Amino acid sequence: MAKPHKHAGLRLLVTTSLADADIARLAKQAAAGVTVKVPQWSSVRLEKAEPGFLVFSVRGPGGLAELMEFALEAVTDSGATKMRSTITRYKQSQSTFAGVIPTGPKKLSGLATYRKWIQNFTAALREADPSAAIDVNGPLTASVGEYL
Amino acid sequence: MNAAVEVLIGAALLAGPLYKLYWLVNTRAHPRVQQTPPDVSAFDRGQEDTP
Predict the structure, then answer these.
(1) Could you say which architecture CATH assigns to the domain A12-136?
(2) Chain B CB contacts of A54 below 8 Å
(3) How many angstroms separate the CA atoms of A117 and A35, rounded?
């Protein structure tokens, strides 16, 4: 099995008292905020919604390629809602010579967009619930650590 | 002999772009066009997880 990318484990942990409906609305708004519509260079799309579980996909230009899939899961613990977002599937790309020979480091496709979604979502959560505990286990600067 | 070499070089040069095309078309889990976007209100767990 291939070695996972260094940043494949980037996750967001949140403990909040917000209602599920608000969380879902903020998560979807954060996804809409990441999307670059004209031209459609990158987008985050909601793929699945189940009780306490949302699945988003990060898509490339024109929505053709699906670069990454991440999930947001919520559980109730001691009266508060604990959420966790994790990357569930991703693609890596690598520059090549003559289209065949790999020449550069591997790049985690869609990482910058996922980071932007985390930034938007955490900013919205902080605004809606200033007492929310938010933990991100990696850098959110778009240019840091994209390559392995 | 020369023709065979040209074919080999051509195949090598085409392999990358063809694989990229295959990668784009076949390795996605969700269709490009979403017929019905999921209803975000389904995220609401109601009372099922409340202690």
Answers:
(1) 2-Layer Sandwich (3.30)
(2) 40, 43
(3) 9
Residue A100 near residue B10, CB atoms below 8 Å = no
Closest chain B residue to A95 measured between Cα atoms?
B16
A97 touches chain B (CB under 8 A): no
Q: Could you tell me which chain B residue has the CA closest to the CA of A19?
A: B44
Cα-only R_g, chain B: 24
A vs B: CB pairs below 8 A = 90
Query: Taking a C-beta distance cutoff of 8 angstroms, is the pair A63, B32 a contact?
Result: yes
For chain A, residues with pLDDT lower than 50 are: 148
Beta strands in A60-138 (DSSP E): 66-77, 80-90, 92-93, 96-97, 101-102, 107-108, 133-136
Question: Which pLDDT belongs to residue A37?
Answer: 65
Model pTM?
Answer: 0.80
Contacts of A45 in chain B (CB under 8 A): 30, 34, 37
E strand or H helix that includes residue A45: strand A43-50
Residue of B40, B25, B47 whose CA lies nearest to A55: B40
